[in-house]
């Protein structure tokens, strides 16, 4: 069970990191963007760690409080849950 949850979290993190890169590129070109709601939902569904990585790798959404504080907090919560599940 734990391995499945860990793999799911890793996949969601990769997807959200890629979405952050995609959204940043779209923002540079003044094109249609990925909605903040979509990014937050992806983070809530397990991709927060990838969102944090993407946020700082691509310098994207770092000035938005809900991302600058919310994603790291959510990522820490995900890590806490994973550690608790691993210790069962």
From TrEMBL:
Species this protein is from: Caryophanon latum
Ranges annotated as spanning the membrane: 5-22, 38-58, 67-86
GO molecular function: nucleic acid binding
InterPro entries referenced in this protein's UniProt entry, alphabetically: Cold_shock_CspA (IPR012156), DUF1294 (IPR010718)
Descriptive protein name: DUF1294 domain-containing protein
Pfam families per UniProt: DUF1294 (PF06961)
Keyword entries, A-Z: Membrane, Transmembrane, Transmembrane helix
């Amino acid at each position: 069970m734990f391995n499945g949850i860990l793999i799911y979290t890793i996949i969601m993190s990769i997807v959200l990191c890629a979405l952050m890169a995609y959204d940043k590129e779209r923002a540079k070109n003044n094109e249609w963007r990925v909605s903040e709601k979509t990014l937050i939902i992806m983070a809530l569904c397990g991709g927060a760690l990838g969102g944090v990585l993407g946020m700082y790798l691509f310098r994207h959404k770092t000035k938005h409080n809900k991302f600058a504080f919310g994603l790291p907090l959510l990522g820490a919560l995900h890590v806490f849950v994973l550690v608790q599940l691993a210790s069962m």
